[in-house]
Amino acid sequence: MKKRIFGEIKGIFEGDSFDNRIDLSISKVHRPTQAGISGSENEGSDSIVISGGYEDDEDLGNIIIYTGHGGRSNNSKVQVADQTLTRGNKALAISCEKGLPVRVIRGYNKQSKFSPEEGYRYDGLFLVKDYWRDKGKSGYVIWRFRLEKISNKINLLDEVKRNTVSEPVSNYGSTVRQKYFVSRVIRETRIAQYIKELYNDACQVCGIQIKSQVTSYSEAAHIKALGKPHNGPDTKENILCLCPNHHTMFDLGIISIDDNFNILGIDGVILKVHPKHIIDKEFVKYHREHHYKKLS
Amino acid sequence: MKKRIFGEIKGIFEGDSFDNRIDLSISKVHRPTQAGISGSENEGSDSIVISGGYEDDEDLGNIIIYTGHGGRSNNSKVQVADQTLTRGNKALAISCEKGLPVRVIRGYNKQSKFSPEEGYRYDGLFLVKDYWRDKGKSGYVIWRFRLEKISNKINLLDEVKRNTVSEPVSNYGSTVRQKYFVSRVIRETRIAQYIKELYNDACQVCGIQIKSQVTSYSEAAHIKALGKPHNGPDTKENILCLCPNHHTMFDLGIISIDDNFNILGIDGVILKVHPKHIIDKEFVKYHREHHYKKLS
């Protein structure tokens, strides 16, 4: 088994064309030669191919409403049964909740103005911003996914110095983060994903683990903030795994941490720290002195 | 006392010039004729003027690191004492936590390439994305604010039909929402602000009210999601006041609501509903049928 690659494939650029599914597979852009969704029920989905012109798909260019798989007859693309949140559908749901980037490949399809003239074209990275159950045109249950293109235009992190990081290696380029008004899905860096996995998504302040039907959810909080003028690094030593409430409270300086990892702002609570997670006390001190509001 | 206007002023457009502070004041773009920060300790700040070339300001164009007021001698712009999180500084902090848009006016200043050649220029709406305590160049405590321009370029809500709303009247245009990697500050619509105020920022699921040093924090959750293909409206009947954790759980379909306002997904909990808040059960049904994941 080859390791699943999330994000850009080295040497492949947006707009690159491929004659057929075999070429796509060899290039690693989309491994399966038949399935439209590449992914697993544990790791999430790393790429999809849009080519079928499925009756419920809607391709709006930078926004794609993608229909899951299953429940179709072998010979046609028409629904004949309900879809379930399993296999590729579950993989896409995990990519949504974990903020994993999904490579989108469009195949020739005379019904879509966004499809290539022939063959297949790699059209860049998207985030699954939302997913939901719906009734398809045939009356059966379908699972739908809203994919949004990760913008190259505005990258607030242009200003963040890309710090030298040895492990784990980032395998998906720059660290664009966005928020869609419907959900709080953001794209996390590989480092952030690593810390969240280390804690199994349990909050380091309260221990809460938000469990969904497909995976669990937490947020990566940078202790010394990224961006000007703080310029904190995107490294393990500068990241905490927090629930949304404690992330908010940390960012707003309602809580902070002392040098013994006591939580300031909540009496008698100590930050839970995994033995493999070395937190840099310089960053903690920076947060305390600059962001913790009670000092004043 | 005239009502404080947050957001755009009718008839005034980005790039409009003003000869002096009196004209600025009459136009309502920036009411005070002396102070750099317009705002109050209860409502937040609605506008600032950047003109002083204060020693700790940094104008990067679409990002401004703005220094608070206080602690300066009358005759110079040099710090002679610590600043406190009061008056205009507190107002800007509230605008940060509430996601209120701040009008930015730049005055002539030979040290900044972003300043106008003469007089004053209205440069559009910004969000205060972060604020923190720092040591200024003079060694005294200063309060700093990171302002980011609200982008006109990418407006995901272009697709959202602007629904006819009678009350409360939106006084700040379109509903751009963004997320900066450091904070979860987003721009809320006037309607969303209204609902959050109605509940005094207490979560309708768990009752938690996240209190900061300057105000309290909650999030507005749309029951039937905005945007394609859901096209839920931005109206009171479609908005809940939630803490970040329950907002996340609601958006991910971990929890939902039945027709008697019992919370689905958490046993024995009923949604707290203010008598003035009429929730449309059609939207609740939509969320339950489309987003609540346990059905499957």
Keywords:
homodimer, 296 residues, alpha+beta, PUA domain-like, eight-stranded mixed sheet, 5 helices, 14 strands, elongated, PUA-like_sf (chains A, B), endonuclease (chains A, B), endonuclease activity (chains A, B), UHRF1/2-like (chains A, B)
Q: How helical, in percent, are the residues of chain A?
A: 10-25%
Helix and strand sequence of chain A: EHEEEEHEEEHEEEEHEEH
Number of domains of chain A: 2
Tell me the CATH superfamily of the largest domain in chain A: SRA-YDG
Shape descriptor of chain A reads elongated
Work out the radius of gyration of chain A.
Answer: 21 Å
Instruction: Name the poorly predicted regions of chain A.
Output: 153-183
**Helical region count of chain A?**
5
- In CATH's first tier, which class of the largest domain in chain A applies? Mainly Beta
Protein name (chains A, B): Putative restriction endonuclease
Pfam family, one (chains A, B): SAD_SRA
Keywords (chains A, B): Endonuclease, Hydrolase, Nuclease
GO molecular function (chains A, B): endonuclease activity; ubiquitin protein ligase activity
